[in-house]
Amino acid sequence: MQWGAQTYALIAYMRKPVGEGMVLLMEGADTTGVEADCHLLTDETRIKGLYDRLGITTGDRVPDFEVLLRAKLLRGFVHEYEIIAHRILPQ
Question: pLDDT (tens digit, 9 = 90+) per residue, 52-61?
Fold first, then answer.
């Protein structure tokens, strides 16, 4: 990886298409994109920011959603990342 490179990732949380329950999907343009997903999902401060974007608090039901991340890389590792878009999926 070169200095200043970036990658993209997607997190989706939605109902299973068949049966009951929810599914969490994490995908990236490459493995470092998935690394950025993991950083977001394991950082309480960033989760709070995601909840703010979704208009919920920690006690509320989490709606079905998709989030697009952009991650900046340094020496091939995620250096910083940000949510660049989100949408709440219809029920």
Answer: 999 999 899 9
